[in-house]
Design a protein that fits this description.
109 residues, mainly alpha
C-alpha cells in the first residue's frame, strides 16, 4: 500500500518519471521476443540458447538503463535485444541439435 501510494505521488508530481519507468520495463520485456520466435519457428533453437540470450539481453538492457548512454545512441532495450539475438543464435548453433517438430509445423499438419 505504501509503495503504491508513493508511486502515485511520484507520478503526479513528475510525469516524466512514469514515462521513463514504462520505457525501462518495455526494454526488459522485449527480451522475450527472440525466445518466443525461436521456439515457434526455428527448429535449431535450444533451451540453453534461449535462456542464455534472455539473461545476456536483460543484463545489457539493465546496464545501459542505469549506466546511462547506449551504443549508437539506441534505446537500451534495443541494445539488449541485439545482444540477446546474437547470444541466442550462437549458443543454439553451438549446442547439440535435437530433431523435433516446431509448434508451427505441428499446427500446419
Amino acid at each position: 500500500m505504501v509503495v503504491s501510494l508513493a508511486a502515485y505521488v511520484l507520478a503526479l508530481f513528475n510525469p516524466a518519471s512514469l514515462v521513463s519507468l514504462l520505457l525501462g520495463a518495455y526494454g526488459v520485456v522485449v527480451q522475450l521476443l527472440p525466445m518466443l520466435l525461436g521456439a515457434l519457428f526455428w527448429r535449431r533453437s535450444s533451451r540453453a540458447g534461449a535462456f542464455s540470450g534472455l539473461a545476456v539481453g536483460a543484463a545489457v538492457t539493465l546496464y545501459y538503463q542505469f549506466a546511462g548512454g547506449a551504443l549508437f545512441d539506441w534505446h537500451p532495450g534495443f541494445c539488449g535485444l541485439a545482444a540477446n539475438m546474437i547470444v541466442f543464435i550462437g549458443v543454439s548453433l553451438a549446442s547439440k541439435a535435437v530433431r523435433a517438430k516446431s509448434p508451427a509445423e505441428s499446427l500446419s499438419s
